[in-house]
Task: structure prediction
Amino acid sequence: YKAYMIYEYDDSIHFLKSTLEAKARANASYSLRAFAKKLGISPGGLSLVLNKKKKLSSERALEIARALELKADEADYFMTMV
Result:
């Protein structure tokens, strides 16, 4: 499922928030907790990242790109945004 286009974003946080919103629209029971689990990050950690209180490391960003099943070029773009 790819309801988003990563190249429309110039900010990794905005991209992640939009991805979460899209998934929540597609499934009313989808939550930040479910998104965090998919990304392999704690819900608290994800909340800190989304609220710009914590930065993503490049290692974590790569894990997130893999979890979102981004294509290689999309993952590279995501990594440069982080």
Summary: The chain has a mean pLDDT of 93. The chain is about 60% helix and 0% strand. Residues 24 and 30 are 5 Å apart (CA to CA).
